Amino acid sequence: MAVMIAKALDFTGYTSKSSIDSTSSFKDSGSISSWAQTAVTAAVNAKIINGVRDSTLAPSAEATRAEATVMLKRLLQYIQFIN
Question: What region holds the SLH domain (predicted)?
Answer without folding.
Answer: 23-83
